[in-house]
Each structure stands twice: as structure tokens, then as C-alpha cells.
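User: Predict the full complex structure for these chains.
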Amino acid sequence: MSWLNSKCPFKLFLCILAILFYGCATYKPPDNIQTFYDRVSQKVGADLSVTCNEFDVQCFPIINARMAKTNLGIYPANFEILPVFLKVENKGQNPIKVDLPNSFITIGEKQTTYVDTDSVVDRIAKSDTDAAAIGAMLGVFGGVAGVVIGTGVGAVIDSSKVRSGTVEGHYYRQCFNPVFIHPKNSGRGVVFYNLSTEDFDCERLTLSVPIVDLNTNKISNAEFSFNPADFKTIQEDRK
Amino acid sequence: MRRFILICLLPVLILMISACAAPKLKKDDLLIEPVINKGISEERGVILYVENFGFAKSISDPSIVGEAKIGMFDVASSIRSEDPVHVIITDQIKKAFLKAGFNLDVKENAHFTISGRIERFWVNERIGVIMQSARASVKYDLIVKDKQGRFVWGENIVGRAMSAESMDTTDDDVPTLINALKNSIESIFANESFWKAVGK
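Assistant: Here is the predicted structure of the two-chain assembly.
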């Protein structure tokens, strides 16, 4: 009966609005010919690299909100993760392994750990579920009570969803690979670390990535120290 | 008054009963037969020694293999396994190598030593407004070394699986995890570089 009264067109409008928001939230990875490495390395600018006889390691923290949204579909601070693009080149004679599960970030006395790609996707999906539940609840409340605000707020919360399904395949394709690197070969891709929202404002953090020589079992650490604030702006913004 | 207490207790009871129904990964669930199209002839007599797998520090409890959402209110409940994950994967890898035609023996007699470390062995449920699905992923390093301890082959093995969408996916959790494990094992034997390294 309520759908026949004068509020009906307005509710219909809100439904359309919700559908529009739903569409806006879907992430589409950039489809230009530039590789992820080209896009990130050209824009991050600051050079973080470790070179020794056996390997070269380059590190590009993805902290700038616009660059993260474009390349990963998320604002990393919202999910308390720090994405880092790594490129490791094996210049030695022996095969090496980039031991990502044992890599970590140190901030003062505190250590934060590596997060594997599947856990990152789970974290994004969990946030989607929460947004969907709140959106649906408020939408239902709006319908029952005849109060349009409920549906409107529901639609806005729904728009905060990332659509984990749209980032999932992209992340699996872009994650660091291969971790076993033969001589004269290289591995590259995105890795993630736990980083609380307040730690994004820390003055200095150190990323340590252990690299294992698979014949001698010797472990070398590639360490990068940087101030996250230095990566909040990208080269385009600096010009 | 008594009725009021009963009404208050009812949701708690429902939650308690539903939480008891978390699925469990049993030994019988692991009677899987991975499809291995390519094998090695047993007459070639390639002998392997499979070390017990370790697990990364991201696995805090090797007996917990996932999280189910139980009952009406989707209460999170741990999915436990009868055997810890490193025992499961070591056993399944041994069975798969035997099926592919390799022989297993002690380290002194083996041509190659297989070792590995598990990074993930996990299933959980993705919950939408109405529909749900189970997602599982299994990830581990597999390293092959020769008699002299030199690296021969290594790969970060990944197997993923997803159940069909349904109103309640909890019953699919364990089968989806088993599928992911099966996919991971099949990917080892489908890899040409593996056969180039050990099939000689």
C-alpha cells in the first residue's frame, strides 16, 4: 500500500541512486600499456634501492592515496595495510629466494608483519560485508518506517564497498612473483604489510626483506628506511 | 517471570547450539586423488626423501584451518583439523609423489630431497546480503635439492577454490579447502619445469 502513496517516486529515485553508487564503487584496473612497475616507479620518484654483489632490490611504497586508488582500488590506510612494490634482481651465481613471510617493518620498538595477498583480499571482502549489512539494515529501516533517510544513508554506506571480487584477480596477478629467482632473472610485484592508521604518520620506518641463497643457505637482509610522509605526494603533485 | 527468563535465554541457547556445529577437517576427508597426468616410470627408480614441512609464523595455530559463519547470526567459529596442517601437507605430498611414480626412501638413499614451508591453509566464508560462498587457499614453498644439497627446483605452490553461492555455505567449507589442496598438488605435476628438473 505504501508504494502507492506519494513517497513511491522518491523511494524509486533512492533505489536508482543506490544502484548508481553500486556501479561507481566497482574497481577497474588501469588498462594502459604501462606495466604496474612503470606506473609506480615513475610516479613514486624517490629512489629506495639496495645493491650488493648478489642482488639489486628496489622498493616503492604505495602511500599516495590517488596512486593507491588507481593501481589497487583502495585507500591502504582504511585497511591498515602498507602496499609496497618490490623488484628483486638476482645478479649472483646461485638461485635466491625472497623470503616474504619473514619480512617485516620496524617502527621504533614495534614490529609489524607481512600480510599475504589472500589475507588482504579477505580483509577487503570483510569490509564489503560490513558495508552491505549496514546498508541493507538502514535500507530496510527506511522502507518500514517510511523514512527516506534510511535508504539514502544505506546507499552512501554501500558506496564505500570496494567490491573485493573486482580487486581479487588483479591482486593475484600483481603480487610479487616469482619468489624463487634464478641467476640473471628478476622478480617483481606488490607485497603488503600490516600498518596501523597512526603508523602512516610515523617519522621513520624500516622495511627488512630477507633474501636466501638457496645453495649456501646464507641469509642477507635488504633494508629500506624511509619517512612515509615523503611518499604521500607523487611526482605529478610536486611539479 | 519464568517465561521472561526463557525468552531471554533462547537466543543465547540458539547461539550456543549453532556454535557447536562448526565443521571439522577429519582424516577421512583427506582421501583425495589428485589428477596427475604426467608421471615417471618406476623402472627409472628416482628416489625422493620428503622432509616434514614447516609452517610460516603467519600460521599461529596449525590445527585451525578456517573460520565458519554458523547459524542464523553468522557467528564466527574456528574450523579445526584432526591433524595439524604441516602433517596434512607432508602426507599428501608423499602420496602424490608415489602416485607420480617416484620412490620414497631415507635421505641417504635418495636422489633428491623435498622440503617446504606452508604459508597458508585456510578457508572462510564470503557473506553477501543474501548469498554466501566458501573461499579456500593453500600456499606453500616446495624446494627440491640434490644429493649434494644444491638447489634443483623450487616454486611457491598455490591452490585456490571457491564453492558455489548458496544461502548457507558452511557445509561447503571443508570440501572447498580439500579442493584447494588438490589443485595445489596438481599444479606441481602440471609444471613442465618440475619435470625438466627431476624427471631426468
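The first strand of chain B starts at residue 24 and ends at 25.
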